[in-house]
Specification:
The chain is α/β, with parallel strands linked by helices and 272 residues long. It has seven helices and nine strands, in the order E-H-E-H-E-H-E-H-E-H-E-E-H-E-H-E. The chain has helices spanning 20-31, 43-56, 71-85, 109-139, 163-183, 210-225, 239-246, and strands at 11-15, 35-39, 60-64, 90-93, 145-150, 188-195, 198-199, 233-234, 257-260. Strand 5, helix 5 and strand 6 form a beta-alpha-beta unit. Helix 4 packs parallel to helix 5. It holds the Pfam family adh_short_C2.
Length: 272
């Protein structure tokens, strides 16, 4: 493997990488020959993702059941990853969950903290521990590395009701920019990506009632009509950014939030 987006000498960790955007990101790295570690809790989905990534061209794939809501599990997970691979070059902190809240007035402390444990704290500790490994490698004479966070358009928009979700995404966006500022001296870059409306497989037709299929089609049509590229996003749309941010092609790109949304962020509600 050789070329602008060559990942053949890179080890990439993707949390929540056994499906959705995480799998799309990992598949882009795999197509460029990279080595991939997946952290996710579902063993069956992990096995399927491993087969998918090896078929796509990954030179090595290992999967681990790591709970990113636990700082201790993250630290232990890195110890195992480094024992297995010897290094980490790119970390995509992708694990997260949706808010169960529908109003700021009824958003209770249990829901606030439970979401933050994964979306904010888990993501931060995942990137922090990855940064430690990269700094140690830089101090040994081999600088470089890529830290990536999966944000959302709630980093830019006011989103009624889901305040904990938006706060986690916006907070991590700020943390990532701080990492970019601090770690650049080690040639470590840090960026966020902000997806728009993406069909991640949750809305697949298998097992759906006809009523649910119709509802999902209406949701797709609603978002597509408000997106300059008139379709939902797919996980395949994240393969390119995965390969780019893992590879040395992005070695001078840091502190950014890269929007992948078909243009919806820049499309005003009064446009027609």
């Amino acid at each position: 493997m050789a070329g602008l987006f060559d990942c053949s000498d890179k080890v990439t960790l993707v949390t929540g990488g056994n499906g959705g955007i995480g799998l799309g990101f990992a598949r882009g790295v795999a197509k460029m020959g990279g080595k991939i570690a997946i952290w996710a809790r579902n063993a069956e989905k992990n096995d399927a993702a491993k087969a998918d990534l090896l078929a796509a061209g990954a030179s090595r794939v290992e999967t681990y059941q790591v709970d990113v809501a636990s700082e201790e599990a993250i630290i232990a997970g890195y110890a195992q990853l480094l024992a297995d691979f010897g290094r980490v070059d790119c970390v995509f902190a992708n694990s997260g969950r949706a808010s169960r809240s529908r109003s700021v007035l009824t958003l209770d402390s249990a829901e606030w903290h439970d979401l933050m444990a994964v979306n904010l704290h888990g993501a931060f500790f995942t990137l922090r521990e990855g940064a430690k490994a990269m700094v140690a490698r830089a101090e040994a004479g081999e600088p470089g590395g890529s830290l990536v966070y999966c944000g959302s358009l709630s980093m830019f928009h006011g989103m009624p009701g889901i305040n904990n979700y938006a706060a986690s995404k916006g907070g991590m966006g700020a943390a990532v920019r701080g990492m970019a500022a601090e770690l650049g001296k080690y040639e470590i870059r840090a960026n966020s990506i902000a997806p728009g409306y993406v069909k991640t497989g949750i809305g697949a037709d298998q097992g759906m009632s006809e009523e649910m299929k119709a509802r999902m089609a209406a949701v797709d049509a609603h978002f597509s009509a408000k997106t300059p590229i008139h379709r939902p996003g797919t996980i395949e749309d994240f393969e390119g950014i995965g390969a780019y941010l893992c590879s040395d092609a992005s070695r001078f790109h840091s502190g950014d939030t890269i929007v992948i949304d078909g243009g919806s962020l820049i499309y005003p509600p009064y446009a027609f």
